[in-house]
């Protein structure tokens, strides 16, 4: 019997040897690893393992009657790992050998007990399965990371396509997209066109670097004057801006926003030791004034209101109404 143990430990590292009474006299090295603090040898097999199938196995005689039948069992103490097994009697009524395996619970067992390839017989196909699972896991993780990078690149590309690179504001394409979405949801809104006054003089006198600096300051002022997360500010042309106010059609509130923007832009903007002076004209169209808002029509009407502000003397705000004159070209100074 002693000579068999070494052989069985190599060929069947999860076996138990039972004596004629059903007591464990030896357990394979992998099985011992599963219960390092509770030696299996010396205990009664049916006290250490809960036999799920076949049922009603209460004694060694019942176990021997199940010779050659697939056994479904688990440890009685936690973790109650599920096992599969088969029992073969030893010659001369000396007892029996029960060879065990994890079955489909092998992945949980490897995780719970930190098993390695050395804990399985060299011919055990479980090792091949573990290699496949590991390869699949590595491939899935690589795929997940690649998809994550691609998603990040796609978001960055979309963000760049919808962003004005000079000011960091949304561009005309983004404004068209957001306006279309707001109209589709039937949410009330307002569109305000803002055009800088005297901006051409800044470019002509101080150069485009000064003009770029002014535009960046204008963007900051507009962001500060609007509601973060609710309003969309876009640069739609050289010195032209559009603000979309979602859920806001109150004329007094919109007039206050326009007044704040105009007031801030009338303050001198310093650049490289020089003073840049601009102002702003604003025109607003309200979705509530239309039976069925159409993006192109509202944008055009906000533009009409803007040019009405230009002809009123600049640095003011006008709401669109049907009796406003159609826009005509402003003076070269904007």
UniProtKB/TrEMBL annotation:
- Entry's InterPro entries? DGC-Regulatory_Protein (IPR052163), GGDEF_dom (IPR000160), HNOB_dom_associated_sf (IPR042463), Nucleotide_cyclase (IPR029787), Rev_trsase/Diguanyl_cyclase (IPR043128)
Q: What Gene3D superfamilies does the record point to?
A: 3.30.70.270, Haem NO binding associated domain (3.30.450.260)
The protein's matches in PROSITE patterns, at most eight in alphabetical order, are given as: GGDEF
Span of domain GGDEF: 187-322
Segment forming the signal sequence? none
Q: What is this protein called?
A: Diguanylate cyclase
Source species = Aquicoccus porphyridii
């Amino acid at each position: 019997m002693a000579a068999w143990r070494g052989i069985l430990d190599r060929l069947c590292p999860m076996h138990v040897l039972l004596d004629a009474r059903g007591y464990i006299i030896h357990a394979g090295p992998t099985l011992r690893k599963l219960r390092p603090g509770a030696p299996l040898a010396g205990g009664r097999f049916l006290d250490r393992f809960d036999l799920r199938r076949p049922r009603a196995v209460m004694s060694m005689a019942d176990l021997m009657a199940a010779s050659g039948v697939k056994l479904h069992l688990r440890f009685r103490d936690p973790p109650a790992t599920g096992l599969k097994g088969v029992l073969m009697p030893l010659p001369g009524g000396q007892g029996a050998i029960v060879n065990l395996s994890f079955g489909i619970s092998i992945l949980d067992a490897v995780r719970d007990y930190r098993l390695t390839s050395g804990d399985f017989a060299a011919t055990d196909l479980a090792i091949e399965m573990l290699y496949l699972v590991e390869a699949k896991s590595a491939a899935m993780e690589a795929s997940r990371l690649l998809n994550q990078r691609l998603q990040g690149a796609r978001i960055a590309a979309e963000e760049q396509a919808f962003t004005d690179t000079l000011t960091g504001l949304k561009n005309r394409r983004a404004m068209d997209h957001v306006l279309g979405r707001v109209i589709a949801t039937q949410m009330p809104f307002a569109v305000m066109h803002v055009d800088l006054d005297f901006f051409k003089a800044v470019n002509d006198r101080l150069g485009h670097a000064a003009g770029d600096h002014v535009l960046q300051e204008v963007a900051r002022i507009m962001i500060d004057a609007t509601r973060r997360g609710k309003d969309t500010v876009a640069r739609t042309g050289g010195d032209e801006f559009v603000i979309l106010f979602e859920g806001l059609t109150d004329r007094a509130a919109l007039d206050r926003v326009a007044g704040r923007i105009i007031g801030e832009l009338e303050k001198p903007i310093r650049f490289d030791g020089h003073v840049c002076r601009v102002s702003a004209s604003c025109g607003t169209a309200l979705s509530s004034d239309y039976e069925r808002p159409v993006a192109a029509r509202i944008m055009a009407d906000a533009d009409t209101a803007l040019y009405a502000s230009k002809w009123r003397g600049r640095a003011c705000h006008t709401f669109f109404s049907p009796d406003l004159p159609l826009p005509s070209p402003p003076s070269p100074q904007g």
